[in-house]
Amino acid sequence: MDLVTFDVVVIGGGPAGRALARACAEEGLHTAIVDRHPHRPWTATYGAWADELPADTPVKSVSTTVRAYAREEHLIQRTYVVLDNAKLHELPDTVQVLQRPEAARYTFNATGARKGSAEQTAVGTVIESDSTETTLMDWRGNGDTFLYTVPLGDNRLLVEETCLARRPGMPLQELRDRLHARLAPGEEEERVRFPLDAPRAKGAFGAAAGFIHPATGYSVATALQLAPRVAQAIKANEDPEHVIWSRKARIVHAMRKHGLEALLRLDADGTRDFFELFFRLDPELQRAYLSGREDVRGTAKAMSVLFRAAPAHLRWKLL
Questions:
Q1: In a 10 Å sphere around its CB, with 0-12 CB exposed, 13-18 middle and 19+ buried, how is residue 193 labelled?
Q2: Which one of 5, 44, 90, 133 has the fewest CB atoms closer than 10 angstroms to its CB?
Q3: Degrees to nearest 5, angle at CA 21 with 18 and 22
Q4: Structure letter (DSSP) for residue 199
Q5: Where are the alpha helices (DSSP H) in 114-246?
Q6: For residues 146 and 275, what is the distance between their CA atoms, to the nearest angstrom?
Q7: Strand locations in the chain, DSSP E?
Q8: Name one Pfam family in it (predicted).
Q9: How many degrees, rounded to 5, is the angle at CA 123 between CA 117 and CA 127?
Q10: Mind listing the pLDDT tens digit for each residue in 27-59?
């Protein structure tokens, strides 16, 4: 029998893994993280709604003006931020960095999502701009991809051609060609590919546990929210799985997966029609669907209101 050395070992040194390791250490738990490249910087851009995040979350840029375009322009009444990767990468000295797993009371896989058939893919470029506005989605164009623009700070703007959901994912070269047809690329390129329908998993955290929102692709804010609660459960000798996947979270996740399947059935015109209806929803209903991980009633109401407002040609595809 292996001698248990740690209270918690987290396998994977991305944003979710480091958030959990940090939270466990702050609760006084003997914590280690397995990260074979602990000094490698993160190159991905992590965006989130400010109201989803713990108050002390470090951010790199803030957008108080957020727009979306479907059939018409919509102003979204929420603040959007880009997370500060360098600060999120930091760990307290009490967290031991390992090259391979060691025995622990709790071991969490935080190595990211590996399975799934529906994917979100994107190719972005960074250009010089003093803009402080975020365009969450701009569906004007081909219809099956949208443009996402977000300020990174220091007069830098990420412009990204995104395929929200396709099975299998749209090839990166096709996205690159579409992006370059819109604008001259900068020197930096960002590439995105991950599954939207990865299964829920026990003994995992972050995307590896199935945190990815099946209809939007966001997951990091959820990991940052849950990390302190998971650490507190471990300290109290409670089952952390009840925090990671509560009954309400499982119900909402199932509804979101239904939303993903509906999106996959839409053509370009149907996609624009869908998002026109979505961004016309009451802001609280938008927030419930996008961010209410345990809000069963709010998620169901958002889906119901959108369905009732949909024209007949769209409604049957949403069933």
A1: middle
A2: 90
A3: 85
A4: P
A5: 172-182, 220-235, 241-244
A6: 11
A7: 6-11, 31-34, 47-49, 59-63, 66-69, 73-76, 80-83, 96-98, 104-109, 119-128, 134-138, 146-153, 156-166, 188-195
A8: Lycopene_cycl
A9: 160
A10: 999 999 999 999 999 999 999 999 999 999 999
Three state DSSP letters for 267-313: CHHHHHHHHHHHHHCCHHHHHHHHHCCCCHHHHHHHHHHHHHHCCHH
pLDDT score, position 286: 97
Beta carbons of 8 and 25 less than 8 angstroms apart: no
How many angstroms separate the CA atoms of 205 and 107, rounded? 10
Range 154-167 average pLDDT? 97
Residue found by looking up tokens 């209101």 in the block? 305
pTM: 0.94
Q: Indicate the SS3 state at residue 123.
A: strand
- Tell the residue number behind the tokens 């595809």, with chain if given: 317
Token digits for 91? Answer: 């760990």
First to last CA, the chain: 52
pLDDT at position 2, please?
A: 58
Distances in whole angstroms, Cα of residue 220 to Cα of each of 17, 30, 286: 10, 24, 19
- Asked if residue 3 has pLDDT above 90, the reply is no
Q: 193: which 2 tokens?
A: 């590919």
Residues whose CB falls within 8 Å of the CB of residue 258, separated by 6 or more in sequence, listed in order: 303
Structure tokens at 74: 């919509």
> What does the block give as tokens for 245?
């996947």
- Residue 265: is its pLDDT beyond 80? yes
